[in-house]
């Protein structure tokens, strides 16, 4: 199986913690800086997320499927040309899931879980970024730095598209949560 990440598990964990600590500092405008506190809180957040994934039956297969799906999703978005909208985002999720299932390396339920995890990650990243898309970078979010060189108009379209997609995603998940009594 091809590894879609060039990082080992400890390096990947450290990167997640660094990114979460950065978002914490950014959220408060980098004022009242306490990098140690940011780091420790980020570690707790990442540990809780990892534990939740394990509790939900995650493990290495789901993580591998997630990494592969994330890379495919990123590749699809990178190929977006002149226009992008919420439907483009939805289609990228669907296509990356279909392609991962077609590989036959993961059972469909694992791919579905990986897809849900990726959607949650994208929605959270879009919400954290808010209106500050002028500084796309790996620190801001690795999925979106693919649009760095596309120009302001395209980035504005992408921001609008992702915000619209997040609204749909939150609305759909809210409805399913109310119907089923749990998160889908």
Q: Main attributes?
A:
mainly alpha, 0% strand, globular
* Major sheet details: none
Number of strands: 0
In DSSP terms (H or I, runs of 4 or more residues), the helix count works out at 6
Class per helix and strand makeup: mainly alpha
- Nearest-integer average pLDDT: 75
Order of helices and strands: HHHHHH
Helix content: over 70%
If you compute it from the alpha carbons, what radius of gyration comes out, rounded to the nearest whole angstrom? 17 Å
Broad shape: globular
Query: Which residue ranges are poorly predicted, with pLDDT under 50 across at least 5 consecutive positions?
Result: 1-6, 136-140
Number of domains: 2
The fraction of residues assigned to DSSP E strands is under 5%
Short synopsis of the structure:
The chain has 184 residues and is an all-alpha fold.
Question: What does the model show?
Answer:
With 184 residues, the chain is mostly helical. It folds into two domains: 1-55, no CATH class; 63-180, no CATH class. The chain contains six helices and no strands. The protein has helices spanning 9-27, 35-55, 59-78, 86-103, 108-129, 152-180. α4 (86-103) packs across α6 (152-180) and α5 packs across α6 (152-180). The model is unreliable at 1-6 and 136-140 (pLDDT under 50).
SSE arrangement:
Layout: H1 9-27, H2 35-55, H3 59-78, H4 86-103, H5 108-129, H6 152-180
Helix pairs in contact: 1-2, 3-4, 3-5, 4-5, 4-6, 5-6
């Amino acid at each position: 199986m091809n590894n879609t990440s060039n990082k080992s598990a400890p390096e990947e964990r450290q990167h997640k913690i660094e990114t979460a600590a950065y978002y914490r500092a950014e959220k408060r405008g980098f004022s009242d800086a306490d990098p140690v506190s940011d780091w420790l809180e980020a570690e707790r957040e990442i540990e809780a997320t990892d534990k939740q994934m394990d509790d939900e039956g995650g493990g290495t297969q789901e993580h591998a499927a997630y990494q592969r799906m994330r890379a495919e999703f990123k590749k699809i978005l990178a190929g977006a040309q002149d226009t992008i909208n919420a439907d483009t985002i939805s289609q990228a999720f669907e296509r990356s899931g279909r392609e991962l299932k077609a590989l036959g390396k993961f059972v469909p339920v694992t791919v579905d879980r990986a897809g849900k995890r990726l959607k949650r990650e994208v929605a959270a990243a879009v919400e954290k970024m808010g209106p500050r898309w002028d500084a796309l970078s790996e620190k801001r979010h690795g999925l979106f730095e693919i649009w760095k060189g596309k120009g302001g108009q395209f980035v504005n379209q992408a921001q609008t598209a992702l915000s619209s997609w997040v609204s749909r995603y939150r609305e759909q998940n809210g409805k399913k949560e109310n119907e089923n009594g749990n998160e889908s």
